[in-house]
Design goal:
173 residues, alpha+beta, four-stranded antiparallel β-sheet, two-stranded antiparallel ribbon, 6 strands
Length: 173
């Protein structure tokens, strides 16, 4: 395996470690993709979001109307592990690219396939959907669930239409 810039090249042996007998992406690789996305996400708390909205004149969040942006930001739930849940209702009218850019701010771009479907309009959008779909088999994000933090030791995903909850981030410290 060799890295070229940000492109990872796999030998035949490395590629066989990624795929199991059925040719599906291994759970380890899917989890690694998700963790890598979250670890480099620029926004990991509401304080980060507030600062970003004040200091980033070209933020992807501007693809949302002011009202949609306010509702989306209000829906964000963070834990010490980063974004735990959010409402996707404000994102439904956006293009796949805009959805991806917004979710990438939080390292949640792999949730793209958990949102209502949109027609794919470009090869770039097709690639975004493909990368997000690699993780569809894992019980990572729970659709129509929100992270409820009731006490330091009472944290869990609960039903709420229009929200996505990450059970790996939505748990007690």
């Amino acid at each position: 395996m060799a890295a070229v810039g940000s492109l990872l090249l796999l030998s035949d042996a490395g590629a066989s470690q990624i795929e199991n007998a059925e040719g599906a992406m291994s759970d380890q690789v899917s989890i690694a993709l998700r963790e890598a996305s979250r670890s480099v996400a620029p926004l990991k708390s509401l304080a980060d979001v507030d600062l970003h909205l004040k200091d980033a004149p070209a933020t992807p969040l501007l693809a949302l109307s002011e009202d949609q942006r306010r509702r989306f930001v209000k829906s964000l739930v963070f834990t010490d592990k980063g974004l735990a849940s959010y409402s996707w209702l404000s994102l439904t009218e956006l293009s796949i690219v805009d959805r991806y850019r917004i979710l990438a701010l939080f390292g949640a771009q792999n949730d793209l396939t958990k949102l209502p479907h949109m027609p794919v309009k470009s090869e770039a959008e097709e690639s975004m959907i493909f990368l997000a779909s690699l993780q569809d088999e894992l019980p990572m994000t729970q659709r129509n669930s929100v992270c409820w933090v009731r006490e330091p030791n009472v944290v869990r995903c609960e039903y709420e239409y229009g929200a996505n909850c990450d059970p790996n981030a939505c748990r007690p410290r």
